[in-house]
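UDP-3-O-acylglucosamine N-acyltransferase
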Amino acid sequence: MNFTANDIAEFLNGEVDGDGSVSVNNVSRIEEGREGTLSFLSNPKYIHYIYETKSSIVLVNKDFVADKEIAATLIRVEDAYQALAQLLEMYEQSKPQRVGIEQPSFVSKTAQVGEQVYIGAFAYVGSNVKIGKNVKLYPHVYVGDNVVIGDNTVLNSGVKVYENCIIGKECIFHSGVVIGGDGFGFAPSSANDYKKVPQIGNVVIEDHVEIGANTCVDRATMGSTIIRKGVKLDNLIQVAHNVEIDEHTVIAAQTGIAGSSKVGKNCMIGGQVGLSGHLSIANEVKIAAQSGIGRNIKQEGVVLQGSPAFEFGPYQKSYVLFKNLPKMREQIIALEKELKELKK
């Protein structure tokens, strides 16, 4: 389906700069732009591509100022990245929606299934499960007994949800996600043995949460592991038992959060970050990639880096010294020799 620049600008409340009648039927990256496609520019590092792109339409921020002529038609919006997200969401919603229960699959007679639900082949839905409206369970999804799934939630192929877990509305879980596996609880029973501690809690995931592929959220030993509304988890993240992640926090891939730690609201945690157990992280904290957190972070909005992590500014200054340590060592050795000669 083709859309003109005028159509797109009207949908996005944007302003056309150029030929409003030019049309597109696909999207492309600005550096790989093709005629008939739409691109966007939000990162200043990519500005030079806008003067050479073959894209027919480019979304730009309203404050963008061109240094030279641009062949593409521009649509000026408040935030080009968010505007692109709106367009892609509209495109996703325009796709045909799957509905119905495919065979072979198993749905318990005691399960409650809402309207317009899709359950793919080889899926399993256990006893006393409650599934809301417009839920999508793709092939090979496992939903254990007594699970609750809210309206418009999507579980992609291979997602496993253990018994008694609760999932909110409009969540998206990608392939391989495991919700409610046992927490890592073992008690030493002798010099060479560990006794498993039964994990009898559950996982509660609130509305509008997205979880990336192969991420695991463990059930609580007692009580609940809790992921609050609006949280976004990347691929390959480990969330241990009794952890709580507060609203609208985002966490990048390969991060691990040990048991009973609490992460505040609106935090941003980079990839490969490690958090020790029983910690408390304040709201709006930012933690750079590959950092290690072994203490409570009480100051809201602080930016941390390093392992063990400390404030970003001092870390950057210290890193300059880290890099120069071999050279400084040589200088110290030379000064020691010189001092010995002077003493003689």
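thats it. The helical segments are 5-12, 80-94, 312-343. Residues 3-94 form a domain with the Udp-n-acetylmuramoylalanyl-d-glutamate--2,6- Diaminopimelate Ligase; Chain: A, domain 1 fold (CATH 3.40.1390.10). bye
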